[in-house]
Amino acid sequence: MTQTRRVFVVLVSALAAASARGAGPGTTAVPVLQVPMSARAAGMGTSFTAVANDASALFYNPAGLARLNAHEFDFSFASGQGETSIQNISYAGPTPFTGVSGNGYTSLGANLLYSQSGKIEVNRLNTDGSLASSENLNAGSDLVLTGGYAERAGLTPLELHDAAYQIDHYLGVSGKFIRSTIVTKTATAVAADIGYLAHSPEAGLSLGASALNIGGKIKYNEEKEPLPATLRGGFAWQGGTPSLHNVIASLDGDYLTNEREWHANIGLEYFWVKTYGVRVGYQIHREDAGLTMGFGLRWKGRFLLDYAWGLGKTLSDQHRITVSYRFGGVPPSLRGRQRRPFIESVPERERLHDIEERQPQYSDPPPRPRAVPRERTSGVPGWIY
């Protein structure tokens, strides 16, 4: 093995191990999959599994895509990860279909995430230990493509204490393609997400659960490293007067299956006159656990600006900025349209059946009318008088 090749092999192996350690105690790879890109969710301490109702639902609970009543484009930027820069573009919106279950509220979502890990200096040595050459190389990059689908799987009417409630059950799935590069080594992997969300509009309560980054492994060198498979669950409550103020409180938790680590998150969001919002959250049982804060601005219900700031134990500030644009709102009455029974979709058959029932029935064939002689009338041949 040449000296140059040996340097690269050692370097790639070290960086691969460092990449795996970034996601936990050295057992998973591609830690960027755990970076909270949405500024709204980050401001709430990532307590978002039961809140998810925008394009960032693909990061926390794909079932939340079904709660969107408008099309949405998001652009997010993250800093505070050393020299790493992360950008993310998302789209999510409703579709006109009633879905597999026929209960409406169908939505599609897509996401593109790209990160770069900065530069590293590679020094090559001569056999006597002296410096032969020095070069700056890209430390690595990650590209993640995600597509998701969600719909309302069913609804449950409930009556308690003379009050009527309805619980909507949403299901969502997504798949992702991952391309990761460390110096000169590139590896790919695929993974899947699945989520469930129950929501009662009358009570303002939500329950969510999801499994993320399931089934995928990535191989840089000789061995395959698992992706950071994560189980999430949480509760949320929403209340207030919609025209004046709105409050969301959430409690969330996640469990990293390979690292066998758990985390807890608490979040709070308050919006005044649907325009000015503040958020606060706290992350528990993390290396960089600590306080998160943020704000949100809404202009005409279309343009959205969200910012979040987090302070961990290492005193390394982390910033998130998300700019969003919403358009093409769909009324809930159309979103919740259910598939009609097959017989109702063919009204011609119903009308034909009604006509046949209204026709008189005879036991014997009715007598034919007797022909009445009429005078021949002159005129154009072929006319009927």
Describe the structure.
The strands form three sheets. A 14-stranded antiparallel beta barrel has the order 1-2-3-6-7-8-9-12-13-14-15-16-17-18. The chain has helices at residues 3-21, 39-43, 57-60, 332-335, 347-358, and strands spanning 71-81, 84-94, 107-116, 119-125, 131-138, 140-160, 163-182, 185-200, 205-214, 217-219, 224-226, 230-241, 245-256, 261-272, 276-284, 291-299, 303-311, 317-327. It is mostly beta strands and 385 residues long. It is globular and about 85 Å long. The protein is 11% helix and 50% strand. The protein has one domain (3-342): monomeric porin ompg (Porin).
Derived structural class: mainly beta
The CATH superfamily label reads monomeric porin ompg
In one word, what is the shape? globular
Question: What is the second-level CATH architecture?
Answer: Beta Barrel
Oligomer: single chain
The CATH C-level name is Mainly Beta
